[in-house]
């Protein structure tokens, strides 16, 4: 990830777990929406405008995909599964 130029005002930590899921919602008449659900909290990732996509939107989507893939590989590498379906971090 690139380094942020602005100071962070706040950080929201959303932990994955049993109720966490990510869902992509493609729509024929508007831009797609990515929903990240964490139990009672949902985060919707959308483009700049609902009716068009900019080059910045495309770049962000690609960056998001790259970072999500890196996160998935790191989680998989760290997971040591137990017989009951739980795991321990390495």
Feature tags:
globular; 90 residues; alpha+beta
Strand content: 25-35%
Q: From the helix content, strand content and strand pairing, which structural class follows?
A: alpha+beta
**Cα distance, first to last residue?**
24 Å
What characteristic shape results from the CA principal axes? Answer: globular
User: What are the segments in which pLDDT stays under 50 over at least 5 consecutive residues?
Assistant: none
Strand line-up in the sheet with most strands: 1-2-3
Assembly type of the chains comes to single chain
Number of strands: 5
Order of helices and strands: EEEHEE
Mean pLDDT: 88
Descriptive account of the structure:
This protein has a domain of 61 residues. Helix content is 27%, strand content 26%. It has a three-stranded antiparallel sheet, with no helix packed on it. It has a two-stranded antiparallel ribbon with strand order 4-5. A hairpin with a 7-residue loop joins strand 1 and strand 2. The mean pLDDT is 88.
Summarize this, please?
The chain has 90 residues and is α+β, with helices and mostly antiparallel strands. 27% of the residues lie in helices and 26% in strands.
Give the helix/strand layout.
Layout: E1 20-25, E2 33-38, E3 41-45, H1 55-78, E4 79-81, E5 87-89
Antiparallel strand pairs: 1-2, 2-3, 4-5
């Amino acid at each position: 990830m690139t380094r942020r130029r602005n100071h962070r005002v706040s950080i929201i930590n959303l932990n994955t777990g049993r109720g966490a899921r990510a869902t992509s919602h493609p729509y024929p008449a508007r831009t797609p929406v990515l929903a990240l659900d964490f139990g009672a909290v949902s985060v919707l990732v959308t483009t700049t405008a609902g009716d068009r996509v900019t080059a910045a939107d495309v770049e962000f989507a690609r960056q998001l995909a790259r970072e999500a893939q890196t996160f998935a590989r790191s989680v998989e590498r760290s997971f040591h599964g137990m017989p009951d379906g739980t795991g321990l971090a390495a």
